Design the sequence.
């Protein structure tokens, strides 16, 4: 039996989910009494394979094809590898690139697909734990099949450590160039600017609970009164109310301030990815069940429009009228 | 030259602050329905392309019960030309429609509509598979790109120059040959509000309902090895101290805390 886990890299670096998927893959392999194989596709495959050879890895298959991720190449390579090694489980990361090839691979191999797993139990029928409704509830799904594809949420499993004694072998695959219909032409860094929220000791972060752009001065006044920096969740930036360099989260900035005050932010996984390393997290939210409450150290379950003006006053500021 | 853009749209449920679970879902009393946020951006993108182009038709497709028609009409009110709704007793009875099943169903619509471009959302806000668009592309043999936050569409060549939003503020620039499926990320545009005139016009726009039969599918399409088996409120991992009281009391607690920590002066 085999578990095949696909790793990922960008611009010359292995990404952290590659090491987490080893841990998840080893868990699953133990439950299935299987070997754990890794797929490494593109870039410096030999260097990557050496670094991925951690405790619990039995084999690494490398495909030296291209420098960067291309979903057509990944889809073809993983599909060919799965056809050759016939894995019982195919694990892929639920990253932005995972979103760009995992469903295609599952489709090509005709495997059932469960995405964004936060946990699984594979003694007997595979039971996968997922979240629904923005993390307010959890669900379990059962997969009744001999083989399946699963994508793994980042930062749910610890990174694998140690050194393994995996066999590292190149895997031969003829990429059908005529089926490669997408071309990556470059990368661009966005979201730089005058303010660097990653440098702040105290962040006041505003979310969709603020409702209207006209209400933004209220949280600005709070940030001013505290001598803090203003940051936000994604919808505030999507709406054009604050520039991109203020966005905290998966597609924004990762921040680790002493204090992070989340005002009207629900705590979606992609937001939490950017702020869970804060020393002290304080949430102000009307919803006692909001996922942000799970990671908050302190919380006020109340209307921000009642609480924030009082806070501003406490620090000698003036709430905008 | 005419262009047809198909936009997949889902009516999603939002949950009230307080709720109860009954069986495998949240009790309907605590749910409110709306157009999926990501699909709202996809509709806007398609409508903007139709406004900028000569002969562009925008068709929306949803898999959903009759209730969803109100939501679907909102997409028509914002400028889509017509709508297709797929529903069948077999779908109502199927329980979980996983991404693969949805892709099979939508594929039948793509095959009959033959669009040049398909726009989906990155994810549905309720069950968040984040997979239907790319699964659909694979199923119908289209190219694709996931998590697109900028689109420059060349209708003559049917090539989409897109930006894919990666993690950590990095964007990937990619050219995608059509026909393609693009999964649209929020922030790509500014979705409009439906005007009163748009809402009136939407009432007269075609909204065709198809059962499995009409699409040449049989009930086996909903057979899936993936089954929803339980839903529950997660045990709070948190040990948050919740400050209680009136706003001035809780604000005082928080202020005292911040002063004691020495993070804020004054
Ligand atoms: C690929 C991808 C990448 C993403 N990247 C990011 C990212 O980098 N950063 C990010 O933030 N998101 C990101 N998201 C979006 C994420 O999934 C959520 O949609 C987003 O974080 C929600 O923002 P929010 O908490 O402000 O809004 P909501 O989820 O709408 O939450 C608003 C909160 O405000 C509360 N509230 C409402 N009114 C009040 C009031 N009067 N007083 C107090 N509280 C109130 C509500 O109870 C609720 O909890 C990404 C999504 C995807 C798919
Ligand atoms: N029931 C549905 N009807 C129409 N489109 C859907 C449906 N479910 C998902 N989609 C589309 O697929 C996208 C991703 O959904 P998901 O893979 O379920 O997270 C959504 O943004 C929609 O555009």
Sequence:
């Amino acid at each position: 039996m085999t578990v095949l886990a696909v790793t990922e890299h960008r611009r010359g670096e292995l990404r952290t989910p590659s090491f987490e998927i080893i841990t998840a893959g080893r868990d699953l392999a133990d439950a299935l009494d299987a070997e754990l194989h890794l797929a490494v596709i593109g870039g410096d495959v030999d260097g990557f394979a050496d670094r991925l050879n951690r405790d619990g890895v039995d084999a690494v298959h490398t495909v030296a094809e291209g420098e960067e991720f291309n979903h057509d190449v990944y889809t073809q390579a993983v599909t060919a590898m799965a056809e050759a090694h016939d894995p019982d489980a195919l694990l892929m990361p639920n990253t932005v690139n995972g979103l760009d090839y995992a469903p295609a691979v599952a489709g090509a191999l005709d495997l059932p697909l469960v995405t964004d797993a936060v946990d699984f139990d594979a003694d007997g029928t595979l039971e996968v734990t997922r979240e629904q409704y923005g993390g307010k509830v959890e669900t379990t799904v059962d997969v009744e099949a001999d083989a399946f594809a699963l994508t793994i949420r980042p930062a749910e499993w610890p990174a694998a450590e140690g050194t393994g004694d995996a066999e590292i072998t190149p895997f031969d695959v003829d990429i059908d160039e005529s089926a490669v219909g997408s071309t990556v032409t470059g990368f661009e860094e966005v979201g730089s600017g005058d303010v660097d929220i990653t440098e702040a000791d105290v962040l006041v972060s505003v979310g969709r609970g603020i409702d209207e752009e006209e209400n933004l001065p209220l949280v600005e006044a709070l940030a001013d009164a505290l001598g803090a920096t203003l940051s936000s969740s994604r919808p505030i930036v999507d709406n054009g109310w604050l520039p991109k360099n203020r966005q905290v989260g998966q597609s924004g900035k990762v921040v680790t301030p002493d204090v992070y005050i989340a005002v009207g932010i629900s705590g979606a996984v992609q937001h939490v990815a950017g702020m869970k390393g804060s020393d002290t997290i304080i949430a102000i939210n009307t919803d006692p069940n909001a996922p942000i409450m799970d990671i908050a150290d302190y919380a006020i379950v109340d209307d921000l429009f009642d609480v924030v003006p009082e806070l501003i006053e406490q620090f000698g500021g003036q709430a905008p009228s | 030259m005419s262009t047809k853009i198909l936009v997949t749209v889902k009516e999603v449920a939002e949950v009230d602050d307080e709720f109860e679970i009954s069986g495998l879902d949240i009790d309907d009393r605590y749910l409110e329905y709306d157009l999926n946020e990501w699909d709202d951006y996809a509709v806007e993108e398609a409508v903007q392309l139709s406004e900028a182009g000569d002969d562009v038709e925008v068709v929306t497709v949803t898999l959903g019960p009759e209730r969803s028609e109100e939501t679907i009409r909102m997409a028509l009110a914002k400028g889509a030309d017509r709508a297709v709704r797929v529903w069948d007793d077999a779908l109502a009875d199927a329980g979980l429609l996983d991404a693969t099943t949805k892709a099979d169903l939508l594929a039948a619509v793509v095959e009959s509509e033959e669009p040049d471009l398909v726009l989906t959302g990155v994810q549905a806000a309720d069950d968040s598979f984040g997979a239907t668009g790319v699964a659909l592309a694979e199923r119908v043999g289209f190219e694709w790109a996931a998590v697109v936050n900028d689109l420059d569409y060349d209708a003559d060549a049917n090539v989409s120059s897109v930006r894919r939003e990666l993690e950590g503020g990095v964007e990937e620039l990619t050219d995608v040959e059509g026909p393609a499926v693009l999964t649209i990320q929020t922030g790509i545009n500014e979705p409009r509000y439906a005007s009163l005139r748009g809402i009136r016009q939407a009432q007269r726009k075609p909204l065709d309902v198809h059962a499995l039969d009409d699409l040449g599918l049989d009930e086996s399409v909903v057979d899936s090895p993936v089954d929803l088996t339980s839903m529950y409120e997660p045990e709070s991992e948190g040990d948050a101290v919740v400050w209680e009281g009136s706003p001035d009391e809780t604000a005082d607690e928080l202020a005292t805390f911040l002063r004691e920590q020495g993070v804020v002066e004054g």
